[in-house]
Specification:
The protein has a six-stranded mixed sheet, with helices on both faces. It has a single domain, classed as Dinitrogenase iron-molybdenum cofactor biosynthesis domain (Nucleotidyltransferase, domain 5), CATH 3.30.420. Strand 4, helix 2 and strand 5 form a beta-alpha-beta unit. It contains four helices and six strands, in the order E-E-E-H-E-H-E-H-E-H. Helix content is 27%, strand content 22%. By secondary structure, it is of the alpha/beta class.
Length: 136
């Protein structure tokens, strides 16, 4: 199984989970069978948010772990069969371990809607590039 996890960068802070998955950031694609990750700029997977979901599918990703997710992004991911979990803190290794031991909680629409209420649910209020598509 493969997991997509947004990270701060692919160097000094590669093991710290970023706020959300977006094409201007970085991502770790972690393979649980090989127990190893591949860190990269998200743009190496997809040049825009519209291409990110197909890129994740091509890379056989089935799970996303993120600190936050926008309502439309959650709906799209879940409808496509992805499982989306809320990270516990920002430590990559800890969250991978928690997923393996079934301790992470899946995002639910009620939670993401309450978080979106703080920004009015408008993508323009985000610090991501979601003006063209929702940030995951």
């Amino acid at each position: 199984m493969k997991i997509a996890i947004p990270v701060i960068d692919n160097e000094s802070q590669q093991n710290r989970i970023a706020g959300s998955l977006n094409v201007i950031g970085y991502v770790c694609i972690y393979d649980t069978e090989l127990n190893q990750g591949r860190w990269m700029k998200t743009r190496e997977l997809a040049t825009d948010m519209g291409e990110l979901l197909p890129a994740l599918e091509r890379n056989k990703v089935s799970i996303v772990i993120s600190r936050q997710v926008q309502p439309m992004a959650l709906k799209i991911l879940v409808n496509k069969g992805f499982r989306v979990y809320k990270s516990f803190g920002d430590q990559l290794d800890k969250n991978i371990g928690m997923l393996a031991s079934h301790e992470l909680i899946p995002f639910d629409m009620e939670e993401v809607m309450s978080n979106a209420a703080g920004c009015g649910g408008a993508c323009k209020a985000c610090v991501t590039d979601c003006e063209t598509a929702p940030a995951f």
